[in-house]
Design goal:
Layout: E1 8-9, H1 11-22, E2 27-32, E3 36-43, H2 49-60, E4 65-72, E5 77-84, H3 90-107, E6 111-117, H4 130-138, H5 141-151, H6 157-162, E7 171-173, E8 176-177
Parallel strand pairs: 1-3, 5-6
Antiparallel strand pairs: 2-3, 2-4, 4-5, 7-8
Length: about 180
C-alpha cells in the first residue's frame, strides 16, 4: 500500500483547477509549500503540442519539483506528470510521491497517464507515444479482430456503379464483386 498524504489545498489552486478544466490552457503547474498544495502557473495552449511542451519545460525548470497537469490534445484528456529533480532533497521526493494521489482527488477528473520525470528535458511528445502501442501488444486475438472489423467501412455504392459493378452483385469483400457458383 502506498503512502498517501492529504495536504491542505490553497484556494488559488482550487480555482485555478476549475478554470483549467473549463478553459483551453495546455498545462497547470502546482507545488507543495509548507504542507500545502499551491498553484504555480498555467501555460497557455496553442495549436502545437510541441510548442506548448517547450513552454512547460521552461516553466518547470525554474523549480526543483512540481506537479504538471498536461492537457493532451484539445479535449478533456489529462496527464499527471510529477517532476522532481535528482538534486531535490529526499524529503521533497517523498512529499511529492505521497501527495500525487491527493492532487488526483482534488482535480476530480481522470488522468489518462501518470508519468514521473527528473529533468525538464524529458517532457517531450514521445513520452506519451508508447501508451497506444503497449495496448496493442496486450490485445488478445479476439480484441485485435474486433478492432480491425471496427475500422472497416462499407463500400462506396456510387464508385461501384461507375466501375460497372452491379449493386445487386454478391460481395465477397467490401467493394469487390465475386461470381457465386450455383453449387
Amino acid at each position: 500500500m502506498a503512502l498517501k498524504v492529504d495536504f491542505a489545498v490553497d484556494p488559488k489552486l482550487t480555482s485555478a483547477i476549475a478554470d483549467f478544466k473549463a478553459g483551453t490552457d495546455r498545462a497547470l503547474l502546482a507545488s507543495i509549500e509548507g504542507e500545502t498544495l499551491v498553484f504555480i502557473s498555467t501555460v497557455h495552449g496553442t495549436q502545437s503540442e510541441q510548442v506548448d511542451m517547450s513552454k512547460v519545460r521552461t516553466a518547470a525548470s525554474s523549480t526543483p519539483a512540481c506537479f504538471i497537469v498536461f492537457r493532451r490534445g484539445t479535449g478533456q484528456s489529462f496527464a499527471l506528470i510529477t517532476y522532481v529533480t535528482e538534486e531535490a532533497k529526499p524529503k521533497i521526493k517523498m512529499m511529492f510521491s505521497a501527495s500525487a494521489h491527493h492532487l488526483r482527488t482534488v482535480f476530480e477528473a481522470p488522468f489518462s497517464s501518470d508519468k514521473r520525470i527528473v529533468a525538464s528535458e524529458e517532457l517531450v511528445a514521445s513520452m506519451f507515444a508508447h501508451e497506444t502501442t503497449d495496448r496493442d501488444e496486450l490485445m488478445s486475438e479476439i480484441e485485435r479482430s474486433k478492432a480491425q472489423i471496427g475500422a472497416m467501412f462499407l463500400a462506396d455504392q456510387e464508385a461501384d456503379a461507375r466501375n460497372g459493378i452491379s449493386a445487386s452483385a454478391p460481395r465477397a469483400l467490401p467493394g469487390m464483386a465475386a461470381a457465386v457458383p450455383q453449387d
